Amino acid sequence: MSHVAEEIITQPQLWRRAAALHADQPKTLPPAGTRVAIAGAGTSLYMAEAFATLRERSGQGETDAFTPSEALPRRYDAVIALSRSGTTTEVLRYLADLPTDTRKLAITGTPGSPILDLVDDAVVLDFADEISVVQTRFATTALAFLRAHLGDAIEPLAEAAETVVAAPLPLDPSGVRQFVFLGTGFGAAIAREAALKLREAAGAWTEAYPATEFRHGPISAVESESVVWTLNDVPRDMQEVIAATGARFIDEHRDPMVELIMVQRTAVQLATLRGRDPDHPRHLSRSVILTDGGGGEP
Fold this sequence. Notes:
Elements: H1 3-8, H2 11-24, E1 36-39, H3 43-57, E2 63-66, E3 78-83, H4 89-97, E4 103-108, E5 121-124, H5 137-149, H6 154-166, E6 178-183, H7 186-202, E7 206-210, E8 226-230, H8 238-243, E9 248-250, H9 256-273
Parallel strand pairs: 1-2, 1-3, 3-4, 4-5, 6-7, 6-8, 8-9
Helix pairs in contact: 2-5, 2-6, 3-5, 3-7, 6-9, 7-9
């Protein structure tokens, strides 16, 4: 079994640990009413976007999410940097350039990483760190911690995830030519992460859209060898619209963070079928460390 396959199945118990950790240090993250930015690259960007949407929609305050190289020229009460390795060049540069009166926080999986020297407070999820280059459990555990901060109940999510870890895959991915992931609200960000997982691990043709945006052009590329996979609620007529294209439609009505586990498992299966190493995707490394220019983190 690959490292990533082993790491995927540990997620339910790690979400519980994240919730317990938040209960022990509930004041680490910015309180409601503050203006917050959360920055990350690659998978961390999509988790940041999910948190920003959830925080805004729960009425807890203005929240921006971006990759550090595209940071908005605004002042924030607090900035959260999300980085599994804590070494990603553009994340470190962004933190170093922030005004000194901005509260800086980090969520990382690596004790002793350089990011810890640049922040005022940190959440170290070392129990969720990974061997695989492909990021799965650290990302969702970080999101579980962030959701616990927003008041979401994590235990029901962990219980649902235990079912998904053991359930059969919803399809044989070997004959799929194109995967399209759809989501609404924070599920749109999770859809982008779902597409990234299949792209990274298996080199698959994947796309992701907010659910209603799909019909504004992208649907024209869908055909009988396509799969359209929803991460959460979509318009009621979407199944009928997709059926007309001949594509397969997957809509399990789960929480997006839970459904992402099924996508992760599918990505590993497809990588195996294609003879790829899901732990070490082509052209990727655990962290991008640069001497100049941009960069990112898988």
